[in-house]
């Protein structure tokens, strides 16, 4: 596999090579069935086994209690921006939902929710502030939970635990009871940091993630939702996206994305073999530290995210002399370091360093950055 380039794509993104090898071996004949998983009935014994093992592994990795339902669904995280309010906005009759807006993705979630009810911003990082004595530009920090203006009768509070574009991660999920808002369930868009570090799911009501960042191929959307939140869907909610109906049918209300669930299941098994989420967190700390430390000691590259909120998964960085960006990206591509172009809204570069990307890849990137600086600095 030495001819594989290092893939820093934000999503769809790199998968563990062992997972790809298993999928290749099993492509024509899954476990003596004589069939590809793609060809199996979703209601047959074999696929039911694949799906229930994937669910059991995901539950174990996330540390989910039986209070939660796990749904393998479709429509992506952007679909969930509508599906969440369709399911939860009617929960208590007030038709209100509060949003923390901390970057592009959570802003999109808030905007979509306005189509279904009274969706308000409870806190935003859209202005420059000074934090811990550091000056922070807009969208480079995360609002302190003590400042969140959450309405007592909000049907839910939504935040994004990792802004994939801005590179801002919020990992200290607060205990809402301690904030005096224990009745407001929390909804988390965890698309780009799910399974990257231990998280306390007992503090939230639900989380969702498109699989293609850190959990598998595009096509399956992971939803974990506390069962007491089921059964409040608005009448206009499509049945296929009504969490209660999907949970009742064990994610088989309609045909689920069977092959994507199978590959996600291989990723979950791989993660368990690596020692689970706590072990992968240690690698993610080492990888992100290597890159941030290099950027910080250099006067040539810069990452502007407040140190407490720097994402371990997505590292945006700029050249101080931005006129060198095109040359950087071109030469990085020639060095087999791919997909480093930053999102168009922030420019510069972005290295997405998800679970499946080894330390060796980040080392190769840092070596290249050092060399580029020598030649152009
Ligand atoms: C990628 C991403 C999305 C959009 O996901 P889709 O699967 O394309 O709908 C939403 N939120 C976050 C945090 C993301 O990283």
From TrEMBL:
This is Phosphoserine aminotransferase. It is found in: Cytoplasm. HAMAP family: SerC_aminotrans_5. The keyword Iron does not apply. Keywords: Amino-acid biosynthesis, Aminotransferase, Cytoplasm, Pyridoxal phosphate, Pyridoxine biosynthesis, Serine biosynthesis, Transferase. GO terms for molecular function: O-phospho-L-serine:2-oxoglutarate aminotransferase activity. Belongs to the class-V pyridoxal-phosphate-dependent aminotransferase family. SerC subfamily. The modification N6-(pyridoxal phosphate)lysine is found at residue 213. Residues 6-365 form the Aminotransferase class V domain. Pathway: Amino-acid biosynthesis; L-serine biosynthesis; L-serine from 3-phospho-D-glycerate: step 2/3; Cofactor biosynthesis; pyridoxine 5'-phosphate biosynthesis; pyridoxine 5'-phosphate from D-erythrose 4-phosphate: step 3/5. Catalyzes the reversible conversion of 3-phosphohydroxypyruvate to phosphoserine and of 3-hydroxy-2-oxo-4-phosphonooxybutanoate to phosphohydroxythreonine. InterPro entries: Aminotrans_V_dom (IPR000192), Aminotrans_V_PyrdxlP_BS (IPR020578), Pser_aminoTfrase (IPR022278), PyrdxlP-dep_Trfase (IPR015424), PyrdxlP-dep_Trfase_major (IPR015421), PyrdxlP-dep_Trfase_small (IPR015422). Homodimer. L-glutamate binds at residue 43. It catalyses: O-phospho-L-serine + 2-oxoglutarate = 3-phosphooxypyruvate + L-glutamate; 4-(phosphooxy)-L-threonine + 2-oxoglutarate = (R)-3-hydroxy-2-oxo-4-phosphooxybutanoate + L-glutamate. Its cofactor is pyridoxal 5'-phosphate. Pfam families: Aminotran_5. Binds 1 pyridoxal phosphate per subunit. Its EC number is 2.6.1.52. Pyridoxal 5'-phosphate binds at residues 105, 164, 189, 212, 254-255.
């Amino acid at each position: 596999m030495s001819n594989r380039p290092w893939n820093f794509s934000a999503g769809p993104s790199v998968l563990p090579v062992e997972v790809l090898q298993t999928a290749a071996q099993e492509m024509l004949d899954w476990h003596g069935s004589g069939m590809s998983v793609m060809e199996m009935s979703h209601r047959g014994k074999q696929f039911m086994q694949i799906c229930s093992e994937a669910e059991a592994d995901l539950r174990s990795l996330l540390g989910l209690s039986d209070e939660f339902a796990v749904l393998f669904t479709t429509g992506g995280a952007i679909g969930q921006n509508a599906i969440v309010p369709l399911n939860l906005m009617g929960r208590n009759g007030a038709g209100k939902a509060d949003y923390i807006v901390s970057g592009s993705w959570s802003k999109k979630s808030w905007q979509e929710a306005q189509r279904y009810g009274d969706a308000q911003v409870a806190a935003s990082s859209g202005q420059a502030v000074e934090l811990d004595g550091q000056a922070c530009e807009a969208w480079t920090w995360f609002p302190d939970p003590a400042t969140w203006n959450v309405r007592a009768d909000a049907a839910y509070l939504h935040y994004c635990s990792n802004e994939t574009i801005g590179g801002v991660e919020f990992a200290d999920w607060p205990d809402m009871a301690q904030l005096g808002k224990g009745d407001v369930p929390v909804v988390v868009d965890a698309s780009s940091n799910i399974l990257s570090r231990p998280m306390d799911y007992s503090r939230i009501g639900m989380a969702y993630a498109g699989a293609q960042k850190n959990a598998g191929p595009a096509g399956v959307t992971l939803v974990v939702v506390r069962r007491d939140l089921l059964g409040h869907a608005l009448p206009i909610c499509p049945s296929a996206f009504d969490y209660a109906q999907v949970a009742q049918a064990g994610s088989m209300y309609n045909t689920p994305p069977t092959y994507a669930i199978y590959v996600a299941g291989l990723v979950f098994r791989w993660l368990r073999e690596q020692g689970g989420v706590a072990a992968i967190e240690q690698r993610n700390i080492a990888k992100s530290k290597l890159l941030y430390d290099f950027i910080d000691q250099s006067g040539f590259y810069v990452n502007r995210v407040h140190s407490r909120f720097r994402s371990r998964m997505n590292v945006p960085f700029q050249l101080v002399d931005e006129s060198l960006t095109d040359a950087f990206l071109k030469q990085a591509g020639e060095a087999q370091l791919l997909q480093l172009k930053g999102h168009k809204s922030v420019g510069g570069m972005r290295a997405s360093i998800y679970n499946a990307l080894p330390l060796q890849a980040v080392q190769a990137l840092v070596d290249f950055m050092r060399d580029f600086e020598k030649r152009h600095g």
